[in-house]
Amino acid sequence: MSxxxxxxxxxxxxxxxxxxNLADVxxxxxxxxxxxxxxxxxxxxxxxxxERDEVLLLWRHRFITDTxxxxxxxxxVEDGEDIEAAAAREMLEETxxxxxxxxxxxxxxxxxxxxxxxHHVYWSETAEYVGYPEDDFESDRREWVPLGDVPTLLGxxxxxxxxxxxxLLLLHHMRCR
Length: 177
Fold this sequence. Notes:
The longest helix is centred in the C-terminal third of the chain and has 14 residues, at 162-175.
């Protein structure tokens, strides 16, 4: 079994959202290498699928990659906050819709060769419109998109975020057979 061993880390940069660490890594053959890694807080995501098999998504721009795409409401889990509660909070803040009972869909590690980030995705079969989203600046618009359109949207590059791709493909598989 080929196991890379982390013999220790030192923090080289830190802010409230992440730490960049430098690790002393021993390879299976005994060699050592310095490996930078990012330590991050958990991320919670949530969406809803209505009775017409439409999923609630956000259309937003990501300045880092200068791309537009459909995403799920998401945010960092606050210290001491329950992950499921964080997912519900993020959906309400970013969409104006309060989810019904949430179900865990999946947990993904979007970049596990560089980061320990875990994205926990939840979904609900119901949602109640509460009002205009508190965090409306996070997206250009919020829409109910047919789950059946997911493969086409993926093919056109309109769903780019790894967590959204995984979640929407799984929801599509579960609901559009």
